[in-house]
Amino acid sequence: MIRDEETAEARCEYVKIPTLKADTHVVILEQMLATGGSIDLAVNVLLKRGIHPKNIHCVALIGAPEGIQYLHEKYPDMNIILGSLDEKLNSKKYIVPGLGDGGDRAFNSANNPTKG
User: Fold this and answer.
1) Is 105 in the active site?
2) Lowest-pLDDT range, 20-29, 47-56, 91-100?
3) Residue 23 annotated to the active site
4) Is 104 a catalytic residue?
5) What pLDDT does residue 8 have?
6) How far is Cα 94 from Cα 100, in angstroms, rounded to an integer?
7) Do residues 8 and 37 lie in contact, with contact meaning Cβ atoms separated by under 8 Å?
8) Is 72 in contact with 63 (CB distance < 8 Å)?
């Protein structure tokens, strides 16, 4: 999944998962659950493979109330586990106060002189 920084919408770039039985439990790991868009895409991939939302567990370091509400309304049976619930999303759909750019933190790209 990748986030379009202009629209704040997620899009799926690549999917490769094994064949899953309908009763398989799946854990989706997410650094920051902001709008819920990336998780929504991932859940849709799993639903197309026959996984029931009650067997999908989303684990995120931090989340925003807007994304949690969106996912609970769309998938009331899905489990969401957060390390911390932050205040809100800002106008750019970033979590406030948040952790900064998760990709930059994970891949040290903020300190990479070759970064665009």
Assistant:
1) no
2) 91-100
3) no
4) yes
5) 67
6) 9
7) yes
8) no
